Amino acid sequence: MGGGLLVAGTTSDAGKSVVTAGICRWLVRKGVKVAPFKAQNMSLNSFVTREGAEIGRAQAMQAAAARVEPSALMNPVLLKPGGDRSSQVVLMGKPVGELSARGYHAGRQEQLFGTVTDCLEELRRTHDAVICEGAGSPAEINLRRSDIVNMGIARAARLPVVVVGDIDRGGVFASFFGTTALLSPEDQELIAGYVVNKFRGDVTLLEPGLDMLYELTGRRTYGVLPFAHGLGIDEEDGLRVSLRGAVRESVVAPPHGADVLRVAVCAVPLMSNFTDVDALAAEPGVVVRFVDRAEELADADLVVVPGTRGTVRALAWLRERGLADALARRAAEGRPVLGICGGFQVLGERIDDEVESKAGTVEGLGLLPVRVRFAAEKTLARPVGTALGESVEGYEIHHGVADVRGGDEPFLDGCRVGAVWGTHWHGSLESDGFRRAFLRRVAEAAGRAFVPAPDTSFAALREEQLDRLGDLIEEHADTDALLRLIEDGVPKGVPFIPPGAPAPLARNDNTGGTR
Predict the structure, then answer these.
(1) 3-state secondary structure (DSSP) of residue 290
(2) Cα 334 to Cα 47, 327, 384, distances in angstroms
(3) If you write DSSP's letter for every residue of 315-380 in order, what string do you get?
(4) Region (Disordered): which ranges (predicted)?
(5) Is 447 left (phi over 0), alpha (psi -120 to 50) or beta?
(6) Ramachandran angles phi, psi of 291, nearest 5°
(7) So which residues are the catalytic ones?
(8) What are 347-405's pLDDT values in tens digits?
């Protein structure tokens, strides 16, 4: 068996994905054959592997950091929220049904534990090291009995655990101590120490606190990672309350032509794969902004309607906020609009949905001659083709089947009418030649003197970002101590911090027995 490590967090969005990817890139640069792993992921940002399996985009990004091909083994359980209380369950890359949160945690989650441990065991057999990512916090004591992603998998595989805390939020010392003190004695045995993330300023001012944390917990801090701008990695969370005003970080470079291009992305409910616009933000002179008001489309040169896990719900939302009328006005004026996946579907004439929303027949915005029927079986594919005279690669994740009934010209699997384009293909804009050709068409229709930079390589920029993550670990973590932890396993003799988990919740060790 190869070595292993679980990267947990004091909260969601503490930086687990970044740290996991950084450790993977640092290890592979040392010649270590490493793989990422996340037993259970909740995300609307997903990816399709070459074998046609759907996994979280964060794990695909971590696989790229490890320089290995992404696989369903790396994310055996993916939950795709369809609202606040239910999710589609994707097992080993294929959807197996919809479950309420109560139904999932009441039994289904524990049934998947054998699959999860088998996947981790297979990765450890075939790699020198596996760096696992937890979810949320390991101290969610209400969910500990059915946990398969944090201390449950750590206990089953005897993995050492480092806990990441976001100091930028404040309260990081209390979070480290409280997270540890709420775990059972058996779980606490696996907590090796901590990593401080997003630190700003003079680290010597932090050191007294780190010393006191060691005195309180008997556990060391493995690194203090500085706040880093513009990492641009794939994010997991598609359930933010609002993305209005959020700007995707762009390359710090002046526009290649005389003008910039302003891109407005409609922040539809249950937005999925909003990372599609990262390739636009990578272009010098392209500014990408998420919006949710009709007036914010007025000065946009391109409006993107992105993917969503709730196409009919997104359509209603666009109408309620006046965005549907604004999109229709843009189309009539010949101003560019791009619909991707669910966004493509809402631009069509009609949607027949007895699967996702079960709303039946719903009229679309009528901007493209397309009729969509939702099928029970999900399309998962990695298409390759040409458009605008350029080669394109992408991936498809959708239940809707599009019947394209015309248009001025084909556009990947969709079509164009005037300045309105639509396709099911995610990731197409990462193809450099195609992206430049598309932006030239947008600039022409928008009347902008924008010229795409001739040498922007999205793949090269992504590699640079992943190398920056590796640099963060190499330069700001105790890599010798981390390597010993990965190779040698669970540390010996770490003290118990009272009070520990409530007794009824501490007994289940997810191995079929009790303690």
Answers:
(1) strand
(2) 32, 11, 29
(3) HHHHHHTTHHHHHHHHHHHT--EEEETHHHHHTSSEEEESSSS--EEEE---SSSEEEEEEEEEEE
(4) 496-515
(5) left
(6) -135, 160
(7) 341, 426
(8) 999 999 999 999 999 999 999 999 999 999 999 999 999 999 999 999 999 999 999 99
